[in-house]
Here is the input.
Amino acid sequence: MSCAAAETLQQLAAKLRDTRGIAHKRDIAGVMDVLAAHGVAGATAVPVGDDCAAIADSDGYLLFAIEGFVNDFVAAQPWFAGYCGVMVNVSDIYAMGGRPVAVVDALWSRGGDAAVPVLEGLAAAARTYGVPIVGGHTNRRNDREQLSVAILGRAKKLLTSFDARPGDHLVAAIDLRGAFQEPYAYWNASTEAPPQRLRDDLEVLPALAEAGLCAAAKDISMAGILGTALMLLECSQVGAVVDVDAIPRPSGVPLLRWLSAFPSYGFLLSVPDARLDALLARFGEREIACASIGRVDSSRALTIRRGEASVKLWDLAQEALIGCGPLQDAA
Here is the structure.
């Protein structure tokens, strides 16, 4: 490989490690240390660290998740922040092979009409995704708008972050029919799309789980495609080599910006050879861009490749990202 190609890839890796999304995920490890020291984690069907908590019941699994939003985003784009409150929680439920049941919100705001755009965004997304808002908490005597939203769902069969296996394909499925919510790194393929199409596109995930075509998946989060891959690999105690040029990407979007982006519809899946074609066909039927972007291995490191150049982005054997997974539980 050329020295220039290797240097360029090293620079890309360094910039990715310094992104805000990765920094937020690294903060989780400190939280996990405190909770583990006090032994307060409850027994669930999967360890802490997945997109949702999953609690087994007689008909499958109850799924719980919650999302909070940074103050500068809520202040700058209150309607879209409210919309995302439902949208990202719905995505977490589907990433686990489930279907959403209902959401609740916690909204702090100033008085007067300050909270109206946030509430209107919440209501719009609830209608779009067909998920009712059934309660929550409101405080209208705060000094700013602050938002968190929680969701309840149900799954018949789980997709988890703990079931990627060496030899699997690492597959990215992303809806490219959108645009950036400028100036942010949010790829919005939701607010202008037909609601029924959005719901049917998401239905692919539980259908994959129930058909046995996939066992491991994760919603692409604010950590971006590779940050999300790291979380999946950490929970499954595996590694991977990813070809960054194989990642589905909209025309004209710079690679670094895309690798740091949070898509409104984006999932990573770990898929055995024998099931790859059938899985790709499911997304293809919905016109969702989907491709194998690399292979899972036993290295416990994420290596990125471009042409002949390759760089180790993160060595999970040396440094955890989120501090979750079986090794954390056994420590």
